[in-house]
Amino acid sequence: MPTYRDEAVILRTHKLGEADRIVTMLSRRNGKIRAVAKGVRRTSSKFGSRLEPFMVADVQLYQGRSLDIVQQAESLGAYGSEIAAHYERFTSASAMAETADRLSDAEATPEQYLLLVGGLRALSRGEHDARSILDSYLLRVMALSGWAPALEDCARCAAPGPHRNFVVQLGGLVCGDCAAAGAPRVAESTLALLRALIRGDWDAVDAAPAADTAAASGLVSAYTQFHLERGIRSLAHVGSDREGTR
Predict the structure, then answer these.
(1) Mean pLDDT (the chain, rounded)
(2) Are 6 and 73 in contact, with CB atoms under 8 Å apart?
(3) pTM of the predicted protein model
(4) Contacts 24+ apart (CB under 8 A), 74-82
(5) SS3 category, 17
(6) Half-sphere exposure of 204 (CA within 13 A, CB side)
(7) pLDDT class for 217, splitting at 50, 70, 90?
(8) 3-state secondary structure of 73
(9) What are the angstrom distances between the C-alpha of 56 and each of 53, 82, 246?
(10) What is the helix, strand, coil percentage profile of the chain, to 5?
């Protein structure tokens, strides 16, 4: 069918001509979509504000040869303004959207869409520390994409834990026999936080000391970027200050 509808998160936009935009979206059923939204930069546009980054919309599109055409957009989640009003939320959301964009180059699933929507909703409401929401999203979306870090048994030989050496290149925790000389050792409290982040145990996450939060964030960032095989530019702007959301 040349015309179709779907739910979508707006990942990014850029200008096209004098009044149009190209909108990149992660949709629930059709994966990543790139479409032209005609006239949305005019003040008279009826749905331009619904096609801004971090917004969730019910969109109707017309299939084109290279780019689809946005015909209609109805808001499902107006998260953009609340996220943009807080620097830490904005930078975390930007890193989430960039990661979703990179992962969906290969394959996108409804679970990836729902995970991103849930993360953006939590950011907009300030439900938890923004960086912790980002870290939880990154761990979960990597797991959905087949790159779950080993946080119990050895990532290389499957020897049962507990282990303390975390080697990004090998896929997470490794035993003493598999760890190279000088492999970094991670505090058990930091490993407990990583496990809480990936399973969504927010009571444990919110109660974690700042030192463990910072250490976990560093591991999550390094792990994600290594397995994506390219850097996530937005992560460089994610600050270390924690919002007072505990």
Answers:
(1) 91
(2) no
(3) 0.92
(4) 74/47, 74/50, 75/50, 76/7, 77/117, 77/120, 77/121, 78/50, 79/54, 79/55, 79/120, 79/121, 79/123, 79/124, 80/10, 80/52, 80/53, 80/54, 80/55, 82/123, 82/124, 82/125, 82/126
(5) coil
(6) 15
(7) very high
(8) strand
(9) 9, 13, 26
(10) 40, 20, 35
